[in-house]
């Protein structure tokens, strides 16, 4: 078992209890997590091949053309796990630019679907490198809105170090668990704003033997290891 395997399980847990919603993961580890959830504790979860086909057990079970996804978004029956170049304590996310938005020092993806996602349905984030330059006091540009700007629900932020949520009175970021081998102090030092830290922070759960076998069978080349290096 590796740190990447723990991250896959943590991503899978983000969809626990969602029922029949469309899971839209970005990145290999979130994709493996969504697949693991569907194969184990979330059989009603809907996954696509990224184009028009709904999949179950790697076989087609339905058709979902891209134009229909907008209806799913508006209905709130989707849970996306996106990336974040920057994220702040309320879950405001930036994937657009670094620096002054009118003259950025670095151009990124652009806002893409982040605004519509965050105001219509549940959103989570996957950050493969937890660092102060990602977890910032104020994002340079708001792409996905946070809880202080009208987000429906920013559920969790899964990183290579920990799982974070927003289970606080003001819906600011809280340390939910640390991955095995990681200390609370390491997470706090890697975060560029004050985190809510409970008195007792548990360890992120590790995969069962069955889950580990499923992960390995769907990533036999171990590409997931490279995503968090």
UniProtKB/TrEMBL annotation:
It holds the Pfam family CoA_trans. InterPro entries: CoA_trans_fam_I, NagB/RpiA_transferase-like. Belongs to the 3-oxoacid CoA-transferase subunit B family. This is CoA-transferase subunit beta. It comes from Paractinoplanes globisporus.
């Amino acid at each position: 078992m590796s740190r990447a395997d723990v991250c896959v399980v943590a991503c899978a847990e983000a969809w626990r209890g969602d029922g029949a919603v469309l899971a839209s993961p970005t990145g290999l580890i979130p994709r493996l997590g969504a697949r693991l959830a569907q194969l184990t504790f979330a059989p009603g979860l809907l996954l696509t091949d990224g184009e028009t086909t709904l999949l179950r057990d790697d076989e087609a079970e339905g058709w979902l053309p891209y134009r229909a996804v907008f209806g799913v978004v508006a209905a709130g029956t989707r849970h996306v796990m996106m990336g974040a170049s920057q994220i702040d304590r309320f879950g405001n996310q930036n994937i657009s630019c670094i620096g002054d938005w009118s003259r950025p020092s670095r151009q990124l993806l652009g806002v893409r679907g982040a605004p519509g996602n965050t105001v219509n349905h549940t959103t989570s984030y996957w950050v493969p490198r937890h660092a102060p330059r990602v977890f910032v006091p104020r994002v340079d540009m708001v792409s996905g809105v946070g809880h202080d700007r009208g987000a429906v629900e920013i559920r969790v932020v899964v990183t290579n170090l920990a799982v974070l949520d927003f289970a606080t009175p003001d819906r600011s970021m809280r340390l939910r668990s640390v991955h095995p081998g990681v200390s609370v102090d390491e997470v706090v030092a890697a975060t560029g704003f004050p985190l809510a830290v409970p008195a007792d922070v548990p360890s992120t759960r590790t995969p069962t033997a069955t889950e580990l076998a499923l992960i390995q069978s769907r990533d036999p080349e171990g590409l997931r290891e490279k995503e968090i290096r």
